[in-house]
Amino acid sequence: MAKHSGQDAITKIKNSNVRMTPQRVAVLEALLNSKSHPTADQIYQQVGRQFPTISQATVYNNLHTLCESGLAQELTFGNHSSRFDGDPSEHYHVICTGCGSIVDLHYPLLKEMEALAQQTTGFQISHHRLEIYGECEDCAAERE
């Protein structure tokens, strides 16, 4: 993932209906520059270096606002802490069962699966989520 500038975050926020604040720009920039799909606490730690007086609540509120506006997405995996993705496009994730790292997988969306599910169940399908689990190269090498 390419390193994004603060200008990228400012442009994304300006193009949305979200009010721009320096803290919100910093939170989005932290997401855009992360390949690790960080937790809210990790984002708080990173943004706190730039804004030492920022509260955890402010980070959580900004993450919530960014997700609601479609600028980011929250990833929930069972009982684990939510992770956040600065790429709001529709894509899938591959998750390491060893260290918990998450990697984006861009693959043609399985819309035909949604149509089949709707047809066979009568549900009005709104979306789907595909997660693939395995062991990353580092964890596999460590285990061997």
TrEMBL record:
<comment type="similarity">
    <text>Belongs to the Fur family.</text>
</comment>
<dbReference type="InterPro" id="IPR036388">
    <property type="entry name" value="WH-like_DNA-bd_sf"/>
</dbReference>
<dbReference type="Pfam" id="PF01475">
    <property type="entry name" value="FUR"/>
</dbReference>
<keyword id="KW-0804">Transcription</keyword>
<keyword id="KW-0678">Repressor</keyword>
<dbReference type="InterPro" id="IPR036390">
    <property type="entry name" value="WH_DNA-bd_sf"/>
</dbReference>
<keyword id="KW-0862">Zinc</keyword>
<protein>
    <submittedName>
        <fullName>Fur family transcriptional regulator</fullName>
    </submittedName>
</protein>
<keyword id="KW-0238">DNA-binding</keyword>
<keyword id="KW-0805">Transcription regulation</keyword>
<dbReference type="InterPro" id="IPR043135">
    <property type="entry name" value="Fur_C"/>
</dbReference>
<dbReference type="InterPro" id="IPR002481">
    <property type="entry name" value="FUR"/>
</dbReference>
